[in-house]
Amino acid sequence: MTEYKFRSYRRRLITQAIAPKELTKWHRQIIFSRLAQLCSPLLEHFENDLVWFTDSLEQRLKNTAQQQPKDGVELQLAYRHLRKKERLTYASYAAALCAPWPRIDDHERYAQWLGVIVLCCCQLHIQGQYDSAISSALREIRLIANDAKHANIFKLLPTPTSFHSLAELGEQLEVLRLRYAEPNIESTGIGYLSVAVRSAAHLKQGITRNRKIKTPKFEAPELLTLISLEPVDDSGLEVDLLQITPETTDIQATDERMKPEPGKAMRVHDPQQRQQTQTMIALQGQRFAELLASRQQSLPPSFEQLTEWDIHHLILYCLEKLKQKDKLAGWIILALVTGRDPAWLHARAKQWKLLQLAKGYPCVQMQHSVPASQQAEMLKEVLPEVSGHFYQALPIQLYDWVVQFSSSTKPPTKSECRAWLKDIDKQHSTRLTLGRIVRFMEHWCLNHGVDRVIIALMRGEHYQSRPALSYSHLHQDELVLCHYRYVNAIFIMAGQDPELPTSRKTEVYLGSRLHLSRSVLGNSFDILASPLKQKRDVWTVHNDYTGYVWAILAFATGHRDVTAPLGKITDYNPYQHTWWISDKERRHGLAARTLIIPPTAAKQVEHYLEHLRQLQIHCRFLDPDLAVRCQQALDGSGNLLFILTDKQDKKVPADLTPSLLADLLQTRLPWSRNWARHHLRSELVKYSVNPELIDGWMGHEEIGEEALGRHSFLSMADCREVADIIESIFVTHKIKAIIGWTTH
Q: Cα(first)–Cα(last) distance of the chain, in Å?
């Protein structure tokens, strides 16, 4: 009785693996009939090796083999059903038995090989722990018959029935595999077949592999670091930002963080008040949070900043103290000129030679590098060179102080600066604090319409604190000019002359290298459009055409390199030519913007929609799934841009992703895929577009600084100015909208 149950268990195990119950009865009959025709004669030939097959199963196969064989049409219908339902991997036995043989001339020998592999895999299935070997062998024998890359393997295989046992056949396959010194398709394919045959012949037990999970060891996985923030007022509160040590060290490799950033945790401490109740601490924290929110929504009011009266007396007082060899006066002048406190300046002085003499003049050397500053060697002749540092001239009055400066000397503390400034506050009724002195440079530049990117460069900020730095290719002369204007302005307030060196025009650039020359930009779009001029199949044309449409729209909108770029067609208003862009997530609000696209881009959208309509008509009966995907893109239920990828011997629509774009464009776009953001922002700066308008167009505004927010003076009419400039770039470089594929 036990033996009978074991036999019935083996029979159910094999039948369930060959034709799963999820298939219809008609499909299962076709599969079992095909199995009987192929394997019945081989069971008799290798009966000593296939020991796990029961007598009842062998008898059933013989009886089924006597029936009328199924014709090729029924087998082809069964295979199409499996491929359409994406069951080629799940029902691997059925896929191998029903697959067509278009690339095989010797059908009799291939039928023997197909039967041998199926029988060996059945025996391995009973033994257990051979899922990987079974799926690899069945897939290989199927690809040999209908894939051009694997067809050459069949020419090397011997006739299976010429061997008396599976062990001899397996050894011969191993000899064929060892003929190849380096791995290739032939050696790998023969290896899959060899593993199945030899393992079935020797009745080897399968190997169970358990994945080892390695837990990374961090020296301080939850280390909290306190970052002191610049004071927003003069209340004396000490504000620190609590930051957790990042899990990965390559976070600086990207231009800006694409994932949602969590909320910031602040620690507020009042050193003047020693004892506070819990209620007072809560009220103080609430007031500080409200203050931060209001400051992010508008510029600080003028009474919080220094006036000409304060600057006038501060510079005269510091210059007088410098004559008396007071080193703290030099730190105050340096903080006023650079917009950084002494602690920050001293920390950078330890990293590199911050203060030095250049051609006999005191100056500050600032380091600046973004991810796009480094490009491949092959692009050296195509992309412009950029410098990794720049110099800011200091007033000549700091000459002796800079010469005597040493990084080993500790900088003054905040309390020392506060005590030093009390004397001048009493004498001239000024409102000087170290925070106001440090913030005055940014305040002056904003009042004079200086781009925030230039301000960030002058203050030596990191590109992640101001993402627009990553996408800017700036001329060093613009930075020098702004710095000279500021230093001369504050010294003129005091009636003094800083005697800055005469500025000379240079050809030095800073920031990103992804600013293409006129010839390179036009040729890039010509290269993207060149495959469309060749007569090829409609699937390849659609992919290349989608890549060109993406390039046009990405350049016109400054879109980030994200999955499913440009969203759905419902985000586009064809009457006003406006597009709602949402290409970045933000925890505290919706980081989206509305743009007006130029006429060339609008015309390209119309051509692309017509292309989808023509493609839908063409594929209505040839590929219904593709026709449905085209309709989804047209009615807005699916993403607008998609390409066709190969999946199980079929073209399957897939939404655009950064990896798919990389495979599609390859050498035609050798630089970063977000090059359009870099080039577009640099071009808008050259055209002297309003800095706030550029940030709004590129999506660089911070919380409370939205281009169309309640505190903004910009409107959609201003966006038309940018659209006109982009259109002029298209016209200048002869970049045109291209018509897609048509049925005519």
A: 73
Give the whole-angstrom CA distance, residue 451 versus residue 83: 57
* Residues 115/102, Cβ–Cβ less than 8 Å: no
The beta-carbon contacts of 265-270 under 8 Å, at least 24 apart in sequence, are: 265/241, 266/229, 266/239, 266/240, 266/241, 266/242, 267/226, 267/239, 267/240, 267/241, 267/242, 268/237, 268/238, 268/239, 269/237, 269/238, 269/239, 269/240, 270/235, 270/236, 270/237, 270/238
CB atoms within 10 A of CB 187: 17
Q: Cα separation of 437 and 440, whole Å?
A: 5
Residue of 690, 696, 687 lying closest to 729 (CA atoms): 687
The number of residues in the chain equals: 744
Type of residue numbered 345: L
In this structure, are residues 685 and 697 in contact, taking their beta carbons and an 8 Å threshold? no
Calculate Rg over the CA atoms of the chain. Answer: 36
pLDDT reported for residue 234: 64
d(CA 27, CA 117): 21
Please give the DSSP secondary-structure letter assigned to residue 16. H
User: Considering only CA atoms, which of 275, 270, 261 is closest in space to residue 231?
Assistant: 270
| Nearest CA-CA partner of 592 in 559, 546, 622, 617 | 559
For residue 453, which of 104, 700, 110, 158 has the smallest C-alpha distance? 700
- Report whether pLDDT(223) > 50: yes
Instruction: Quote the tokens at residue 557.
Output: 């909108």
What is the helix (H) or strand (E) element at residue 50, kind and residue range? none
Tell me how many degrees the CA angle 672-673-674 measures, rounded to the nearest 5: 90
Helix (H, G, I), strand (E, B) or coil at 357: strand
Query: At 687, is the secondary structure helix, strand, or coil?
Result: coil
For 585-642, what is each residue's pLDDT tens digit?
Answer: 765 556 788 889 999 999 999 999 999 999 998 888 888 888 999 999 999 999 999 9
Does the pLDDT at position 242 exceed 80? no
pLDDT tens digits, one per residue of 41-82: 787 778 777 776 755 566 666 666 666 666 677 887 888 888
* Portion of the chain with pLDDT greater than 90, in percent: 20
333 pLDDT more than 90? yes
Q: What residues pair up with 391 in beta bridges, in sequence order?
A: 365
Q: In what order do the strands lie in the sheet with 238-244?
A: 224-228, 238-244, 265-269
Q: Which element (helix H / strand E) includes 163?
A: none
Q: Are strands 389-393 and 473-475 parallel, antiparallel or unpaired?
A: unpaired
Q: Quick one: which of 447, 420, 202, 186 has its CA closest to 305?
A: 447
Which single residue is written with the structure tokens 């025009």? 505
Whether pLDDT at 437 is above 80:
yes
User: Which residue bears the tokens 């919706």?
Assistant: 590
The sign of the dihedral angle between the CA atoms of 405, 406, 410, 411 is: positive
| pTM metric for this prediction | 0.62
pLDDT score of 168 more than 90: no
Residue among 186, 667, 638 nearest 379 (CA): 667
Q: 411: which 2 tokens?
A: 């900088």
CA–CA gap between residue 290 and residue 309 (Å, rounded): 30
User: 652: part of which helix (H) or strand (E)?
Assistant: strand 651-655
Helices (H), 128-165: 131-146, 151-156
Q: Which of 429-433, 657-661, 703-707, 730-734 has the lowest mean pLDDT?
A: 703-707
User: For all residues of the chain together, what is the average pLDDT?
Assistant: 82
Among 354, 338, 355, smallest CA distance to 455 is for 338
| Nearest in space to 166 (alpha carbons), one of 188, 199, 118, 144 | 199
* Averaged pLDDT, 435-462: 90
Given a contact cutoff of 8 angstroms between Cβ atoms, the answer to whether 134 and 196 are in contact is: yes
What's the one-letter identity of residue 321?
Answer: K
User: For residue 330, which phi and psi values (nearest 5 degrees)?
Assistant: -65, -40
| Residue of 299 and 582 predicted with greater confidence | 582
